Amino acid sequence: SFQALEPIISEQIMHLHHTKHHQTYITNLNAALEAQATALAANDVPSLLSIQQKLTFNGGGHINHSLFWRNLAPHGSPATDIAASAPRLKAALEQQWGSVEQFTRAFGALLLSLQGSGWGWLVCVGGPAGKLELVSTKDQDPVVGGKVPVLGVDMWEHAYYLQYLNNKAGYVERIWEVVNWVEAEERYTKGVDGAALLKL
Prior knowledge:
Strands 2-1-3 form a 3-stranded antiparallel β-sheet, with helices on both faces. About 55% of the residues lie in helices and about 10% in strands. The protein has helices spanning about 10-40, 45-70, 80-85, 85-95, 100-115, 160-165, 170-175, 180-190; strands spanning about 120-125, 130-140, 150-155. The radius of gyration is 18 Å and the shape is globular. The relative contact order is 0.16. It folds into 2 domains: about 10-70, Orthogonal Bundle (Helix Hairpins); about 80-190, minor pseudopilin epsh fold, CATH 3.55.40. By secondary structure, it is mostly helical. The longest helix has about 30 residues, at about 10-40. The model is unreliable at about 190-200 (pLDDT under 50). The two termini are about 20 Å apart. α1 (about 10-40) packs antiparallel against α2 (about 45-70) and α4 (about 85-95) crosses α5 (about 100-115). It catalyses: 2 superoxide + 2 H(+) = H2O2 + O2. It is found in: Mitochondrion matrix.
């Protein structure tokens, strides 16, 4: 339901985000894949090279949004309780950042430091329950290099502007109220060995 994240993220935003923005990435990715197949069959190397940017942008947009939806849970639902839903991840966050509150402040600072459009990520490196890092990606670049995205936040304006206007900090502060810690715990505990979790 597009209403599931109210009042943190409005029904209007979720409807547009799903049916317009994410769908556009899917449509454009499919078109790029068809063009790639045609160019490959024709051994058209210049066209293959020109298609790569479209594949990265639209493929990344599809991957990032698919992960983002799974990162979210209805406001007030059991999945938003980190202590009950993600005990191992919570302990790791406390060990690395001192407390969950200090972690969310560090993540928030990363999100607010992004210039233009992009994503902020908590990633796991080095296998199940590996080292945690905070990273950002530009535009729709996905997380790569053996890092597993545990938690991602969309910082494109279409993710919040209709509700929060220019109050980006308000969106960043409230997003924690709809984080699906069950999903985050699963990604963290499976680590790189659980990469199949990320197949769409």
